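# step 3/5: fold
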Amino acid sequence: VDSLEQHYAQIDGLNLMFETREGILKHCSAANARELGELGHRFLQNKQPSLEAQLTNLADEIAYNNHDVDDGLRSGLVSIEQLEEVRLFAVYRREVEQTWPGLGGRRAIYETLRRIINALIVDLIQASQAAIEEANPQSVDEVRASPQLIRFSEPLRAQARELKQFLHANLYRHYQVNRMTSKARRIINEMFAAFLAEPGLLPSSYQLERGAPVALQARQIADYIAGMTDRFAMREHRRLFAIEEM
């Protein structure tokens, strides 16, 4: 965020507030955060980010998990029968069946997921309000020193964790997903090696001066590849390695 974007006359990067940077860092593991200065040090000390960052983290979790359930069902990689072993899904699946006995197909799935999302949001609001009232923080520093204040109740947290564990075991590690991950890894590795061996293959905006340190070239290549969509990466790989592509 400090180097790639070029929006300002005087500086590279984005002119982000401290709290925004902190919210971005919440996605980093402790291992990666060790090299990130004051923010990384704070996370290693187990201090909390802002309430906004805590909320964003759990809102992402709600959205991604339920979107992935839908994706898994659409793709056929997971089944309704498998999901009915997950408490959070089973409860609202039965509720939908009791409310609309004849409802089936995608409508029933959408209604089930809608109810799951609503239950998680309502629980998150109620549990967070209770935690904030109990802790009664009077400053941002007190928020950082408190336990996580934006949180689910323990029953819903356990059910959300069970759903996440199900997705890891049955969707993210499905052999078809593993195959696609392996292909993606190969595409990235081959492009990186090609660009590092011949920097002139890079677009002109990513080319450095001749004789630039290898580490700097590698960073430039990594930034270029990281900005690619899946479709663009596959097309760029074909341009590099397929004889008929230009």
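# step 4/5: annotate
Residues 177-241 form one domain.
# step 5/5: archive (pending)
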